[in-house]
Structures are given as structure tokens and as C-alpha cells.
């Protein structure tokens, strides 16, 4: 998945408060000491399921946006990169669109900006202040997607930076949970839990904090979505029996999960367009090669809808194990029955069909396999 699409999926959303807000006006006034004359600024958000974008240009280091929203809306402002076309957004800040005058002040361009003027934005800035040290750590680690061609050839560097960025991602997720726990009356907390509820391994932590939120926050449209995600992800948890299914591979042959009874199986859900899924493939290849003689295999289910893109990804990533798909995307019956709301996702299944663990990756997957397969002899 392209970085832009990741941004839109994970961060741009609206939460329904139509019972409280009518159409209300907002004004954003921004100042960046290092903004250049003619710099383009883009304000992007979603409203009623539609992507909305406004643009303006900087004049005398300043810029302005005006508009109206029916309810508090998460948005982001980017500089000189039109989100409708950019592959990677390198500089942006987040704001809440709500009634009133929102002020943005930066000693740079947008980098290091302080957002103030309205209640939600001041709460959001409070969290940003707490994250200053984490942001500095992230700034010092170059994203592999921005590597030069020569840097991309340094596999060790690529893998190291990916691991470090992933650590920071989960550290920020933990900080969001703690912040939401400490601010149960804030709409910002609901925003954070909505975001975190997409992470498979965080769903029970999200549920715990969600239960402490103020009742009025739980009446919103997206609070209902959080509850539905919690319910969905509880459909199949460790200790339950895996649900059997049959699906065709790329050659049209029918494959059933039950065919692998008697083996340890990693049931893996992915898609050709999912960047994080494909980032995991080198690790899965190493794991497969190492454990395939120890009564272990992988069965991958793609939620693609385009067969050509699916098969091309299999070939490009050199995947060696069984691959199946019904090409129904998120509407796949198996996807629904297994309670999946985001990918990558996986289930480690014992020889008797019991789910041992779910959503393992990297070192945690290797550690679990080492534990369960330690007594299994090579064949």
C-alpha cells in the first residue's frame, strides 16, 4: 500500500457528533518563519465519507484556511505535496477542525508547529508536547521508502531502520493508550482509540481504555465502530478451534485448511497492495525454510480482488508455500469468519486445529515457533 493511502486509512476520519453540532465555521491561520513565498499548503480531511481538499499559498510566511464542518473532524495540512498525487508525504501536521479560530505557529515551515486556539487542538498539542523526544528519535531514522537506490541495496541498514521505526510506532501507540486513559472526557482520546483499534494486537488494550471513556463520547458514530471492531476481533482467539474453509489456489485447485491437520500451520492473511504485509515476506521466507522440516507450514490467504496483481506479488516476493484467494477482498467469507479488520493478520494453529496464538510477527513469531517446535524432530 502506498504511503499516501496509509495516511488516509490510519489518520483521516470523521467522528459523528451530528446531534451536537450544526454546520459550524472554522478558521485556520498559520505562520511559519521559514515558509517561502508561494509555498503550497494543502488541507485534507474526510466528511461524510468523501475526501475533501483545500489549497492555498503562503504569503509573508502566513497562510489561511476557512470552511465549515458538521462535527469535529481530524485533518492534516501538508506543504508542497498534493495528497491527491504524492507518493509520500514528508511534512504534515494534524489538526482538529472545529468551531473557532485555530492557530498554527512554527519556527520552521510546518515542522515543530504549535497548534492552539480551540479546546481539541490544545489537547492534541498537549500530547504532541509529550511526544517531543519520540519525534526527535524518529527524525534521526531515515524511512527506507526514502532511501536512494544504493541505500536500498544495504539490506542490513534497511532491516535495521524498519525495526527501529516499528519500535517507535508501537511506543507511540502505547503513549496514546496512556494519554487516552488519563483523558477519558476528551474527544481526542476517542480519536486515538479509533486509530489504535485498527492494530490487531492492541484490541484488548483498546477495549480496556474505551470502557473508561465518558458516556457522551460513546454515543458517537465512530465509538460504535470501535465497539464493532472489538466484537469482530473476538470471533477467534487463542484456545478456540480454527474454522475450516476451502478456497482455490492460483491454478484453480481447491485447498482446505483441514488438509493440514496434524501440522503446525501459520494461517497468514495478506494482499498484494498491503505494504506492511509484503515487508513481512522476507521474514516469513526465512521462517518457512528453517521450520518446514519440523511439521510446520504456512497457508496464506490473500484478500486481493485482482488475480494478476496477486500472482505477480507471489512471484516477485518468491513465496514458496500454499497461496489461496477467492478474490473477494474484504468481503471474503473467511476474512469475516476469522474476525479480521486489518492486515497483516495471522493465526498459529496446532496439529489438533486449536489456535495457539494470533498476530505474531518478527521476533515474537520466531520465539513462539521456537517454543512450540523445540521438541519436533526434523523430517
Tags for this model:
379 residues, alpha+beta, Immunoglobulin-like, Glutaredoxin, 3 domains, four-stranded mixed sheet, 15 strands, 23% strand, globular, AhpC/TSA, antioxidant activity, Thiol-disulfide oxidoreductase resA, disulfide bond, Thioredoxin-like_sf
Give structural notes:
- The chain is α+β, with helices and mostly antiparallel strands.
- It folds into three domains: 25-115, Immunoglobulin-like (Sandwich); 138-234, no CATH class; 240-374, Glutaredoxin, CATH 3.40.30.
- The chain has twelve helices and 15 strands.
- The strands form four sheets. The chain has a five-stranded mixed sheet with strand order 13-12-11-14-15, with helices on one face.
- Helix 10 links the parallel strand 12 (296-302) and strand 13.
- The radius of gyration is 23 Å and the shape is globular.
- The chain starts with a helix and ends in a 7-residue tail after the last helix.
- Mean pLDDT is 89; it is low at 1-21.
Amino acid at each position: 500500500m502506498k504511503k499516501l493511502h496509509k495516511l488516509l486509512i490510519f489518520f483521516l476520519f470523521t467522528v459523528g457528533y451530528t446531534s451536537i453540532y450544526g454546520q459550524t465555521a472554522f478558521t485556520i491561520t498559520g505562520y511559519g518563519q521559514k515558509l517561502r513565498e508561494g509555498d503550497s499548503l494543502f488541507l485534507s480531511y474526510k466528511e461524510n465519507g468523501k475526501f475533501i481538499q483545500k489549497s492555498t499559498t503562503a504569503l509573508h510566511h502566513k497562510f489561511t484556511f476557512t470552511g465549515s464542518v458538521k462535527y469535529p473532524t481530524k485533518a492534516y495540512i501538508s506543504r508542497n505535496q498534493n495528497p491527491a498525487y504524492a507518493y509520500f508525504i514528508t511534512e504534515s501536521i494534524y489538526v482538529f477542525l472545529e468551531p473557532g479560530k485555530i492557530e498554527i505557529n512554527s519556527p520552521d515551515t510546518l515542522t515543530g508547529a504549535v497548534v492552539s486556539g480551540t479546546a481539541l487542538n490544545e489537547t492534541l498539542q498537549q500530547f504532541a508536547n509529550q511526544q517531543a523526544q519520540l519525534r526527535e528519535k524518529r527524525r534521526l531514522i531515515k524511512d527506507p521508502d526514502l532511501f536512494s537506490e544504493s541505500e536500498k541495496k544495504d539490506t542490513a541498514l534497511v532491516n535495521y531502520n524498519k525495526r527501529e521505526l516499528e519500535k517507535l510506532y508501537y511506543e507511540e501507540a502505547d503513549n496514546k493508550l496512556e494519554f487516552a486513559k488519563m483523558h477519558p472526557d476528551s474527544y481526542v482520546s476517542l480519536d486515538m482509540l479509533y486509530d489504535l483499534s485498527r492494530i490487531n494486537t492492541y484490541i484488548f488494550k483498546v477495549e480496556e481504555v474505551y470502557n473508561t471513556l465518558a458516556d457522551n463520547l460513546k454515543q458517537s458514530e465512530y465509538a460504535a465502530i470501535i465497539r464493532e471492531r472489538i466484537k469482530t476481533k473476538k470471533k477467534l482467539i487463542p484456545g478456540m478451534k480454527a474454522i475450516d474453509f476451502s478456497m482455490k489456489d492460483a491454478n484453480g485447485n481447491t485447498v482446505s485448511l483441514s488438509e493440514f491437520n496434524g501440522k503446525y500451520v501459520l494461517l497468514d492473511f495478506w494482499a498484494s497492495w498491503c505494504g506492511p504485509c509484503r515487508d513481512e515476506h522476507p521474514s516469513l521466507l526465512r521462517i518457512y525454510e528453517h521450520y518446514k522440516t519440523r511439521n510446520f507450514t504456512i497457508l496464506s490467504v490473500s484478500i486481493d480482488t485482482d488475480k494478476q496483481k496477486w500472482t505477480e506479488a507471489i512471484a516477485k516476493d518468491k513465496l514458496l508455500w500454499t497461496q489461496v484467494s477467492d478474490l473477494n477482498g474484504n468481503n471474503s467469507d473467511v476474512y469475516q469468519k476469522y474476525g479480521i479488520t486489518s492486515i497483516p493478520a495471522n493465526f498459529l494453529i496446532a496439529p489438533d486445529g486449536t489456535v495457539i496464538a494470533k498476530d505474531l510477527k518478527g521476533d515474537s513469531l520466531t520465539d513462539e515457533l521456537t517454543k512450540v517446535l523445540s521438541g519436533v524432530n526434523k523430517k
